[in-house]
Specification:
Length: 273
């Protein structure tokens, strides 16, 4: 069936990033099982009374076709690829229209049963505080001198006093640190004035992480050592962690709860329809 060919192609690409012809026997069996389930589900949805007057505008179907067509350089390659998967532009259009009708029916029958109120969202928010906290974030720059016994300037006995001297010369990090990093740092970040960006706990090497989160905003660390060498850090700014206000996450909670309700409702609806 052409619809199955479309479902098979879509499922293979989604699950394995390969076309059906490129799948192993085991992968093909897994895809065929998913296709059979998806086709049966579509049949049940479209056979429901709620589907009888659901129609998808031709312009919407055409938009779906074009969203696939634009991936190809020309019409010939588009048609050749379809043919290689047992499809042509007409059957592709039919499969997409069927899929869009199924989506429209599901949206219709679930919409009235799956709304989420602000009160429901607020209850979820206060019942799950651990899901709505943000860690402290620090904006940081560093200067790195690597340790390498093969090079005289990078041996510990010379690298350590060199970085300590650089540290002493930084009396105004706001004005000096980026320039000193560009001049002295052996990290690629030197090109950006030593900028490592916004850092959460656990993102840096352990010794650097531990030191960074004890610094005050604007403070420069003493010389630190990591697995790759010697560093000094400048904590440019601190964004405090804490609980995210409900207003910032309200829409995400409503979307999450709505999707959960939708799945539960559809399971019940399909089981009884």
């Amino acid at each position: 069936m052409t619809t199955d060919n479309y479902l098979r192609l879509r499922t293979a690409l989604a699950g394995f990033q390969r076309t059906p012809a490129q799948l192993s026997d085991d992968e093909r069996q897994a895809v065929d099982l998913q296709v059979a389930r998806a086709a049966a589900l579509q049949d049940r949805v479209l056979a429901h009374a709620a589907a009888q007057d659901v129609h998808v505008p031709a312009a919407v179907v055409e938009q779906a076709v074009q969203s696939i067509r634009v991936r190809y350089d020309n019409e010939e390659s588009f048609r050749d690829d379809l043919a290689g998967n047992g499809l042509d532009p007409l059957t592709l259009r039919g499969a997409l229209e069927r899929e869009l009708r199924v989506d429209a029916v599901i949206e219709r029958v679930s919409a009235a049963h799956c709304t989420v109120s602000d009160d429901e969202a607020a209850i979820y928010y206060y019942q799950h505080p651990e899901r709505f906290t943000r860690p402290e974030i620090r904006t940081v720059r560093h200067i790195l001198i690597t340790l390498n016994e093969a090079y005289a300037d990078n041996r510990r006995d010379r690298a350590l006093p060199r970085l300590q001297q650089i540290r002493r010369e930084i009396t105004d990090p706001m004005q000096q640190f980026a320039a000193m990093a560009r001049r002295h740092s052996e990290c690629p970040s030197a090109l950006e004035g030593g900028r490592l960006g916004r850092v959460k706990p656990g993102m840096l090497y352990a010794a650097l992480d531990a030191a960074l989160f004890t610094l005050a905003a604007g403070e420069v660390s003493e010389v630190l050592e990591s697995e790759i060498g010697l560093h000094i850090l400048w904590c440019e700014a601190i964004e405090p962690g804490g609980v995210i206000p409900f207003s910032e996450v309200r829409s995400k909670i409503i979307d999450h709860l709505g999707e959960r309700k939708r799945k539960q409702f559809l399971r019940q609806w399909l089981a009884t329809s």
